[in-house]
Amino acid sequence: MPNAETSTAGSPAIAFFDPLLALLVPSRCAVCEAPRVDLGGGGVCRACWASLPVLDAASACPRCALPSGGCPCEGCRLAPPAVARTVAFGLYAGGLRTLHHAFKFAGWDLLAAPLGARLAALARATAVTQGADALVPVPSTRRRNRERGYDPAMLLADETARLLRGPRRTLLSRTRESPPQSSLPAPNRRANIEGAFAASPRAHGRVLVLVDDVVTTGATLFEAARALRAAGALEVRALVLARTPEPT
Known about the structure:
Layout: H1 12-24, H2 46-50, H3 74-78, E1 85-91, H4 94-105, H5 112-126, E2 134-137, H6 142-148, H7 152-164, E3 172-174, H8 186-193, E4 197-199, E5 207-215, H9 219-230, E6 235-243
Parallel strand pairs: 1-6, 2-5, 5-6
Antiparallel strand pairs: 3-4
């Protein structure tokens, strides 16, 4: 017979912790907004995690992760980027788009742990980090990091590196503030980001894996890789959370 301390219904102990749990554990899923009955998951229900649009690396462009049947896409054939290989966890659509928005724009930094776990699993499955010296986050601007209180790519890289038991290195910095890439049409994004990164001399002679949250046209990722290669990196790969279905 459960006593007053262990009962799950009407328990004084449970009633005492209810306000704290309400603060620490979101009561509704961040994706579908259905009431959550399970703990953990970064505020996302198990059904929504299971239904994310996962991208098969074998069916994507090996250079930019664009869905392309596994062959290099036209853009990468015509102008090979500085990144040697890119793998993405999923398509920037459906539940993953909602999660990304919550993580990057709505303050849901608690999503870094479950999202980083998926990036770590992807890295193991694709061997994209094999032989690499470090993970390198693609930094956002200081102003946007101050506004949101954190750098999304940094959190993802920290969690991924922790799970892979490998180093994370801050080898890139922003040289200037620039308008968000998402606010610009595709033709203007390359010019907007050109020269926006400076790479540390410590990149010299290393094989590095960039970590970022989303790739759309690839302009930001490719410019970050170009800066690392210019600093002497032997090879630059990329591990990203989401890839848009097609450049927009």
